[in-house]
Design goal:
Elements (H helix, E strand, L loop, with lengths): L1 E4 L7 E4 L3 E9 L5 E9 L2 E8 L2 E8 L4 E5 L15 E5 L5 E6 L9 E7 L4 E8 L6 E6 L5 E6 L9 E7 L4 E7 L3 E10 L4 E9 L8 E6 L4 E6 L6 E4 L5 E5 L5 E5 L7 E2 L11 E2 L5 E5 L4 E5 L5 E3 L4 E6 L6 E5 L4 E5 L5 E2 L2
Antiparallel strand pairs: 1-7, 2-3, 3-30, 3-31, 4-5, 5-6, 6-7, 8-9, 9-10, 10-11, 12-13, 13-14, 14-15, 16-17, 17-18, 18-19, 20-21, 21-22, 22-23, 24-25, 25-26, 26-27, 28-29, 29-30
């Protein structure tokens, strides 16, 4: 069942300019909620995962009609908006799967993993799995299709734990250990690379040597093969873009941003201050780029012939599948902007 909130007077079409102008719909979200993540379920439907006062809320945004629709949650999801340290959430890249890992405050209690499917009609519980006692999940990420959930173990907790990486398969609700701690450990970040089907793992222990400087390792889940692609990722951070490209930010001596294009197996150093850059997004077809400038969110096409400075401060913005829409969550208030890059018009 869907509770529709008709936003009379809250959705409007605006015009902005310099050096171009673009139409955008603006939707006021309910006050007091924290947007944890948002993903496009299809070309015109955006999934919002929100927390409020210890409760979870999932809403759909119909971009075509600028309409917000609150979903009815399974009972098991209602309290999943509690302490982020005890409830780990992961929304799949296609917005069709949600994982909730409930970690007990005591390390002597097993964690519980619940997996859900999201559609325009409903949110359905698919599986609840009791994790092995010795595996206390920390970082989570889905594969592209939302069928397999990858997890790392929280470091420095379980001396008896043998595995550092694991995978939960939705198809048969099973947990599979991928790598042992002697091979790879102290995982700081995970990202699934849709172009190659590999996991990008930022870790500080590799092949028995730890602790050591953080490094970026690619892991093939099918054969558990590993290879190092960046050996000195000091103070490193990962960001997976909407088009499947991977960004690595390092602070080894000076701040540097590296990019691995979807399907490639090596990193390239990004020079200059233009886009793409850290905290940017790229549409899946590569035709549009979005990133923060001094004035706010800057939207431009691939050859920079068309640019639109929105003036909106945002830390969360995502393109839909074909790049026809860009969802922008404005910082400091509950406003969601839905832009149409293809309708940007150069000013005379």
């Amino acid at each position: 069942m869907i509770h529709r909130l008709i936003l009379l007077g809250l959705a409007c079409w605006l015009l902005a300019a310099a050096p171009a102008h673009a139409a955008q719909a603006v939707i006021a979200l309910p006050q007091g909620r924290e947007v944890v993540d948002m993903r496009w379920l299809d070309r015109d439907t955006l999934v919002l995962v929100e927390r409020e006062a210890g409760e979870l809320q999932i809403s759909l945004v119909d971009a075509g009609g600028a309409e917000l629709m609150e979903m009815e949650l399974p009972r098991s999801l209602e309290r999943a908006g509690g302490d982020p340290e005890l409830f780990r959430l992961a929304l799949s890249p296609l917005g069709n799967s949600l994982a909730v890992v409930e970690r007990n405050a005591s390390l002597l209690s097993a964690s519980r993993l619940s997996a859900y499917r999201i559609s325009r009609e409903e949110i359905s519980a698919v599986s609840t799995y009791r994790m092995p006692m010795e595996f206390w999940p920390d970082k989570l990420c889905w594969d592209e299709a939302g069928n397999n959930l990858f997890m790392s173990m929280r470091p420095y907790l379980q001396t008896k734990q043998k595995s550092s990486l694991g995978m939960f398969r939705m198809a048969d609700s099973s947990f599979v250990a991928l790598l042992e701690r002697e091979k790879l450990d102290l995982v700081e970040q995970l990202a699934f690379l849709p172009g190659s089907g590999e996991l990008a793992v930022l870790c500080s222990a590799y092949e028995g040597a730890y602790p050591r400087n953080p490094m970026l390792v690619l892991v093939n889940p099918a054969g558990n093969r590993t290879r190092v692609v960046h050996a000195d990722a000091s103070q490193g951070r990962l960001q997976l873009l909407d088009n499947g490209d991977l960004l690595l930010r390092t602070e080894a001596g000076r701040s540097s941003t590296w990019m691995m294009h979807a399907g490639d197996d090596s990193l390239q150093l990004l020079e200059g201050k233009g886009l793409p850059a850290w905290d940017c997004q790229v549409s899946r077809d590569g035709s549009w780029l979005a990133g923060m400038s001094g004035k706010g969110l800057l939207l431009q096409d691939a050859d920079a012939s068309t640019a639109y400075d929105s003036g909106i401060a945002s830390a969360l913005f995502r393109f839909n599948f074909d790049g026809s829409r860009l969802a922008v969550l404005e910082e400091g208030n509950a406003m969601l902007h839905l832009m149409e890059p293809g309708n940007i018009v150069l000013d005379d």
